[in-house]
Specification:
The complex is a heterodimer. Chain A is of the alpha/beta class. In chain A, 36% of the residues lie in helices and 25% in strands. In chain A, α4 packs across α5 and α5 runs parallel beside α6. Chain B is mainly α.
Chain lengths: 242, 288
């Protein structure tokens, strides 16, 4: 079976700054992949190119066997790519439930027989059932992050792109959110997760990629990647000869 | 009693102004587009109704069965192929383009229909009236017009808060970029909003044309009335828009009662007073 997501030679530069330098990466269906890298390594831009918000200068993105490089974001969403933002962007004037309904009604390849039922189930799963009728603009940070995940799930994705969902949370909140991500992964959704809070990431992913200056510098099982001398030097600031 | 009658007629006229305003308010709410051609499109709808009534021999209200879908189609095409390209962070390009559209529609109508003023005949509906008490009567046409305005505003409210497309309108209004990421095709959603706006314009146009004479040049004044109703009521609040229309209608009626020359002036003064003392409108939508 071909990988769910195939990225081939993806390049992007903003002026003189290279944020993606011929990145190639395959993600099999159902895998949980973590991405680490210092600020400015090109992690978020990589997500933007996969989700369709930013067009690459070169290279291609193949999803579920189809070349989606030229597709607009809404078409990619309907094929099964969902993205959650580092800073949550709920539809503030809509209720929590309505936020999910929009994704369930418009973001799926096939119409659900009962989108409202699906959304109630997802709210339950994400611990938001009590807040269903709350205006999304009035939520706390943790609630917004949960909503960001719940809304992404409502479009029934095959691939979930998580951008620093653990950032800004307390230790307890972080543990609860990681448990939620794991439960989503357990349903068979492939996850690509960018995260600076490495211990949260390591508790949930089975593969780790380190990105630096738009290139992949290490890729493998998390333990090996963390132990890699270049990763230690670039990411953790430990000299290679220490 | 004469005063009560003036105020009552003003309230009912306010329904027409609310119809002018509802479509304007809708597209501003969904895509921050200020449509300068709105008034001219109302007049265009009136001429379409004129053609339909003359060709098919139907009455003006029945002609809406063709004019409303026709205007909706024009709206969809206009948004999809022209106005979508003007949208962005800058409010100026859509203003300029719809201003140009206004000039084109006016002159196009002038070319085809000449400057002669026209009127739609609604078979006695214009003159029918129910006496409420001596000196106070309700015209059938203004009453119908008001009832339709309430129905349109109520219908829009239901659509916005109870249906999938309404949620889509509100989602793209909140954050168009994120809306794309959850599967909404913004260009299509915007085009649907304009289609809906122009369907309402069709209703407004037919009532305008039955109520009074019209010619190709009267669009901009309808745009002003629509704007004033929206601002008085408060942006983004549809029931507020209806209230704004009523306040404008009553102000004009009271002005006309004092001196016939004061009709329009009184409406503008009411509008300016609201702008001066409550610039957010009387019933702004509560946010955050």
């Amino acid at each position: 079976m071909p990988p769910l997501l195939q990225i081939g030679g993806l390049s992007k530069r903003f002026g003189a700054v290279v944020v993606a330098d011929a990145i190639s990466l395959d993600v099999p269906a159902g895998q949980a992949l973590g991405i680490i890298g210092p600020n400015g390594a090109g992690k978020t831009t990589l997500f933007a190119m996969i989700a369709g918000a930013v067009a690459p200068d070169a290279g291609r993105v193949v999803f579920d066997g189809a070349d989606i490089t030229a597709l607009p974001p809404e078409r990619r969403c309907r094929l099964g790519v969902a993205r959650s933002f580092q800073i949550p962007r709920p539809f503030g004037g809509l209720s929590v439930f309505e936020n999910l309904m929009v994704a369930a009604e418009f973001g799926r390849a096939e119409k659900s027989a009962n989108p409202a039922r699906d959304c109630v189930d997802i709210l339950d799963q994400c611990g938001l059932a009590d807040l269903a009728n709350r205006r999304a603009g009035a939520l706390t940070l943790l609630q917004r992050k949960r909503l960001e995940l719940a809304r992404a799930l409502a479009s029934k994705p095959k691939l979930l792109l998580l951008d620093e969902v653990a950032g800004g949370l307390t230790e307890d909140e972080c543990v609860a959110l990681v448990a939620l991500v794991k439960s989503i992964h357990a349903t068979g959704v492939a996850i690509v997760w960018i995260e600076h809070i490495v211990h949260a990431l390591l508790s949930a992913v089975e593969r780790l990629v380190a990105l630096h200056a738009g290139s992949i510098i290490a890729d493998g099982i998390p333990r090996d990647v963390i132990a890699d001398a270049r990763v230690a030097e670039i990411y953790m600031g430990i000299p290679a000869d220490a | 009693m004469e005063w009560a009658n003036s105020i009552l007629q003003g309230v009912l006229t306010g329904g027409l102004y609310a119809l002018f305003a509802a479509g304007l308010s809708l597209i501003f709410g969904v895509m921050r587009l200020v449509n300068i051609a709105h008034g001219d499109l109302i007049v265009l709808a009136a001429y379409l109704a004129l053609v339909v009534t003359q060709t098919l021999g139907v009455d003006p209200l029945t002609s809406l069965a063709l004019v409303a879908p026709g205007m909706a189609l024009i709206g969809y095409g206009l948004q999809r192929f022209l106005l979508n390209h003007t949208l962005g962070d800058d409010l100026l390009p859509p203003l300029l383009v719809t201003f140009g559209l206004s000039v084109i529609v006016q002159n196009g109508l002038l070319e085809v229909f000449t400057a002669d003023s026209r009127r739609l005949q609604a078979g006695g509906l214009e003159t029918a009236a129910w006496p409420v008490m001596p000196g106070l009567s309700v015209g059938a046409l203004p009453a119908l017009q008001f009832a339709v305005a309430v129905a349109v505003v109520g219908g829009l409210q239901l659509l916005f808060y109870k249906t999938a497309i309404g949620r889509a309108f509100r989602a793209v209004s909140d954050d168009a970029e994120t809306a794309e990421l959850v599967g909404l095709d913004n260009r299509h959603v915007f085009a649907l909003a304009m289609a809906l706006s122009l369907a309402i314009v069709a209703i407004a146009g037919v009532f305008l044309a039955v109520r009074a004479n019209f010619d190709p040049s009267i669009g901009p004044a309808r745009l002003i009335f629509g704007f004033e109703a929206v601002i008085i009521g408060g942006l983004g609040n549809l029931w507020g828009t209806l209230a704004g229309g009523i306040i404008l209608g009553v102000a004009q009626a009271v002005g006309a009662k004092i001196d016939p020359g004061w009709q329009l002036l009184a409406g503008h003064i009411a509008f300016l007073a609201v702008l001066a003392f409550r610039p957010e409108g009387l019933f702004p939508r509560v946010r955050h």
